[in-house]
Specification:
single chain; 12 helices; about 75% helix; mainly alpha
Length: about 300
């Protein structure tokens, strides 16, 4: 298996985790744990794991001073703003709205990459983005939307800002991959991001009634802390270092597909022709965004 294939599989795995995360997060927040407190659990767990990996395989832990501003910007956009607004927005709106609005990330990535990194906006990319959004929208709109959020408008706005912030992160972090290993970049991004999140969530974290947690809640919390945060970020940043920001971001289209599969397996939903069509559109969109013209 070559490096490019491994990168695509890693990003696919990350988005499978993210797809499952929408439903899992809704089972514990805000009923059992406040949104910002959940963010504290996420960043502290990931930070601990990243530095444990360093202790297992020691290397140069530092970075060049000139890269400090970019590390801080990545921490702000990829950890602080992204995670705080995502969990808070998801707690206010529905998982369906959150999934749909998060699909704006690849659009923002393509625009930002064209602006900051001078990436060419080709016809294939535009067609792929359009096809992917169309398929994902079709799939999401089929899901049961009877459950309403507490404040749909505010929640939706926060999710949109989260998507823009994450798009900036995926573009800004890419140059760092040219100088450092992915795990090194994530270690420092989460280190700085943790200090940005703690002022917002520490009080809620302390006030959390942990005694109210049952087995289901602990399993959900573990999944969110370890997989939705640590492993998903690790897989994504590896993909980013190999296949680029636009290709990595385009895989967000697969999240609704994975969410539908999970629903069929664990919730008894049926696979329909319309769902198959939506999945075909999504994967076709990913293919078009990633395809490169051959030199004649």
């Amino acid at each position: 298996m070559n490096k490019t294939t491994k990168a695509h599989l890693a990003v696919l795995a990350a988005n499978f985790i993210f797809g499952a995360g929408y439903a899992v997060v809704k089972t514990i927040t805000p009923e059992f744990i406040a949104p910002f407190a959940l963010n504290v659990v996420r960043v502290l767990s990931s930070l601990l794991l990243f530095w444990l990996l360093f202790l297992m395989k020691p290397s140069n832990a530092g970075f060049e001073r000139k890269h400090l501003p970019r590390f801080l910007l990545c921490a702000l956009t990829g950890v602080a703003i992204n995670q705080l607004l995502f969990i808070k927005g998801l707690s206010l709106t529905t998982a369906i709205h959150s999934s749909l609005l998060s699909l704006g990330t690849p659009i923002f990535i393509t625009i930002i990459a064209a602006w900051l990194l001078k990436e060419k906006l080709t016809f294939n990319k535009i067609a792929g983005l359009t096809l992917g959004i169309g398929g994902a929208t079709l799939l999401i709109l089929m899901k049961d939307n009877s459950t309403s959020g507490k404040d749909m408008l505010l929640g939706d706005i926060l999710i949109i800002i989260n998507a823009i912030s994450y798009a900036f992160y995926l573009v800004l972090v890419r140059p760092l991959m040219e100088h450092y290993k992915p795990i090194h970049v994530l270690r420092w991004v989460f280190t700085f991001g943790t200090f940005m999140i703690l002022p917002f969530g520490l009080e809620q974290f302390i006030d959390t009634n942990w005694a109210a947690f049952g087995t289901t809640q602990w399993v959900a919390l573990t999944f969110v802390a370890l997989f939705v945060t640590f492993f998903a970020y690790l897989f994504n940043v590896y993909g980013l270092s190999v296949i680029g920001s636009s290709a990595t971001g385009s895989y967000i289209y697969t999240q609704p597909v994975f969410a539908a599969i999970i629903a069929m397996v664990f919730m008894g939903e049926h696979f329909t022709i319309t769902k198959a069509l939506a999945a075909l559109c999504i994967f076709s969109g990913v293919y078009l965004v990633n395809i490169r013209k051959r030199n004649l």
